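Case study: Trigger factor.
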Amino acid sequence: MEVKENRTDDLNIELTLSITKEDYADKKKKRLNDYRRKAEIKGFRKGMVPMSLVERIYGQSALVDSVNDAISESLNKYIDDNKLRVMGEPLPAEEQPQVEWVDGNDFTFKFDIALTPEIDIQLSKDDQIPYYNINVTEEAKKEMKENLLKQYGSLEDGEAAKEDDFIIADFEQGDMKVEGTYVALRNVDAEVRPSFVGLKPGESIDVDVNKAFTNETDRASLLKVKKEELAGIEPVFKMTVKSVKTFKSAELNQDTYDKIFGEGNVKSEEEFDKKIADRLTAEYAQESEFRFSKDARDFLLAKANVALPEKFLKRWITVTNEGKFTQEEIDREFPGFLNDFRWQMVRGYLAGKYEVKVEESDMFAAAKSFAAYQFAMYGLANVPDEQLESYAKSVLANDKEKGRIYEQVEEQKVLNAVRADVTLKNKKISVEKFRDLK
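Here is what the predicted structure looks like once written out:
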């Protein structure tokens, strides 16, 4: 076995493997003996098939498999012996010597190998990363207060429909009658909506449902039919309003305070307003941290300036995902892949440099925070701790979610270490300008 190395640049190597009969003969003989021992061929007892027949039936596949085994062993040995830090896996070179699969022949194969680039990041207080402190304005507090009271409000009977109200109506056309349909005015097409505004119980108008409800799924639900049936229905219906439902915000009282912030935690509007300010402060602090993570990541990627063997990586992705994605999809997503790949390498380097360790307790705490966030998305802000812990355990039982949380915790620890070594350039900013940042 002979291996020749051609280093085409700092990150790419072409290996030429020359394989002789001596490199694969014993492997082929062993494979044929295994075939003979297991073969069940009519007219012969198991294990007693003549080797000449085994050779005739299995010889070619045994030759190919044995040569491939020799290639794999040779590649792995060369990589280990030369302490090469490879990216992905070796790929057969696009231009290969012609192969004649004849027993006893010598074979030559070429492989492309990509090397992992060296990373060296030195940080000091001269390095500055922006950190945005978001101002909690009176307008923002007022907006959150109104939204919370709306969230915990209720539907009540109204007189005339407003743009954010609901109506309960009957739709009638000839023999077809649909009774008691809920219609949210916000879901009515903007051009048609004015004809709905101001309607009172008992009033009727003609409605072209195709124009008023352009979404076919919504229209089918409204008329209580299947989507396939819509094409056969004349679109103009007489709509009669049975009742108007208007959304009334919750009142500022103890019952509302208890529902939003937990029993007994708030006892006056003043305390209610303070809780809102505290929640906004916490939310903005979290948004500031998210932004810092992005800015720190961008800063570190620029400082590391990691060069990658892009041509090799694109071909590696294409080969290893054959049939899963089109070339167009790979080309479109490739820049994002490269950016994520670079960050993965930089994060790994920094985790080693700062001796970052992710403990089980870190994982569990992160899973609980994720659980609390999930519940909050559904308006559940005061979930009992035991319920959060149960949810966290179920999250960590999922290998994919566990891996995601591990990366999240490791990244946060890396960024905390980076934060201590650089200078944070504090900037005060309004929430409006913060949201305009790119």
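For the exam, be able to explain this: The first helix runs from residue 21 to 38.
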